[in-house]
Amino acid sequence: MDFYIEVKILKIQSKILGEIEIEESAIIHFPDGIPAFEEERRFAIVPMDESGPFYYLQAVNRPELCLVIADPFVFFPDYQVEVPEPELQRIQAEEGKNISLLSVLTIPDDFRQTTANLFAPLLIDTGSKKGIQFIPEKSLYSTKHSIFTSESSAAPAAAGQGE
Amino acid sequence: MLVLNRKKGEAIIIGHNVEISILEVQGDNIKIGIEAPREVKIFRKEIYDEIVEANRQAASQPEEVISRFKEMKSQM
To answer: Which of B42, B51, B72 should we substitute to test contact with A (largest number of A Cβ atoms within 10 Å)?
Structure first.
């Protein structure tokens, strides 16, 4: 008796990765897109290396939209985010069991000054395959926390957000 | 831009399901109540704009900067 499983593979163009193949079932759906790119709803998350905390967030339909993202807890072990219920429901998270938290990185020409957006993390439910960029009403964090300097182990930014 | 004058206690409806109420007016400070379906996102504009700018910046790096980052990051 033969069993067949149909796996749909997508070919995606990426300005950084060139042409990549992604399984349709691995695509993450962002129902609201992300701020500045609200119409982009489908993204692939591609690891930068075999291990390590860096990934690419590649828009399926827009080759030039490729963000570098990272696991924030590797750089900020004390990072804490409180996510309200409506946001969890937006990504159909069941008690937050399968939630991944990832931060968008801004990589300047001097990459040693790379910063992570801890104010508005990406919330991804790996079960429902849905994601949002969570924007809190207020936060102790800013949109730019240095990941490579000793500042990364410091307390969250004092009052206010961003710069 | 549509410009309306409202007094405390009055309201505005947008579409058929977004309702904005003027709750309190104290000098320059206005307390606004918003009723909308859960899927309608509501933010203070300056905060949303800040995330827009951060994402645009993050998305605008040339490919060679990212490549260099990938090669050199393990040395950090």
So the answer is: B51
Which residues of chain B make contact with A34, given a CB cutoff of 8 A?
55
**A151: pLDDT strictly greater than 60:** no
Question: Rounded to 5 degrees, what are φ and ψ at B12?
Answer: -130, 140
Predicted pLDDT at A21: 93
Torsion angle (degrees, nearest 10) of CA B51, B69, A41, A131: -70
| Global ipTM | 0.86
Would you call B13 helix, strand, or coil by DSSP? strand
The DSSP code sequence of B18-76 is: EEEEEEEEETTEEEEEEE--TTS----HHHHHHHHHHHHHHHT--HHHHHHHHHHGGG-
Report pTM: 0.86
Could you give the dihedral angle defined by the CA atoms of residues A67, A157, B32 and B4, in that order, rounded to the nearest 10 degrees? -60
Q: How many angstroms separate the CA atoms of B66 and B28, rounded? A: 46
Alpha helices per DSSP H over chain A: 72-75, 85-90
